[in-house]
Amino acid sequence: MKFEMIERIDELRRFRHVFRNLYKIRLHPGKVKIVLDAARGFSADFTGMHEGFMAWLGKLAEEIEG
Question: Which residues, 6+ apart, have CB-to-CB distance to 45 below 8 Å?
Fold first, then answer.
């Protein structure tokens, strides 16, 4: 997995944690923008990575099966 994708996932994970505990703090607009930037295009990027991973698994399975 690319480092950039890991960073984006981590940013989204952190936001989820804050959002679930929203009653404790207020959202900071600058941080919301960071999360928005991390989320933009994420689905398409993840789909491409997932397809590549599935192709790799298919090749690995073929090699194992001989």
Answer: 5, 8
